[in-house]
Amino acid sequence: MSDPDDSSDALVVQADSADSALGWASLGERRWRCVLGAGGVREDKVEGDAATPAGTYPLRRIYFRNDRLVLPKVRLPARPITEHDGWCDDPRSPAYNRLVHVPNEWSHERMWREDGLYDLVVVVGYNDDPPEGEWGSAIFLHIARQDMSPTRGCIAFARDDLLELVTLIGPETHLDVHSLPKAEIAPPPSDDDDDMKQFEDFDERDW
Length: 207
Description:
Mean pLDDT: 88
Largest sheet: 8 strands, mixed, barrel
Strand content: 25-35%
């Protein structure tokens, strides 16, 4: 079992700013441009909010269109997408946040898409062990639109970048989505900071 604090096994995702869907994903010394959800990055994600969930999650498996790409050698379980594959996004369904056969009576999205976004998909282990409440579903790493427009909560990459990334991740890799850019996270105060604060509060008229 990998150590969740081991950065070499962490795919770290960070937005450019609190009000931007663009960000960077890094794994070791590799780094790729990515795009996140239109609803921002949230620790309190719910179904339909278009937000990317903040936190640390496993990566489960890969789905791909074998009529559109040749999957490189990967370490995660992988299988081709078929025309009858869907993903349930209905919290009322016993198959919520699961792969389902379509047509299906419950609300779902089709995995077989014409726009190419799901030509390559990595399933993120978010709210799936087991799925609960209305905390959100269908959180994937997938291919981004050409204009890198925001997703509905997933993390999307340029096609070639995702093809490279899937060769580097495995069952031990965890996804680490930060809720705020590092530049906007204030470090904890140190003793040196307290000393400097005294100088900042100092007024020469106190002499």
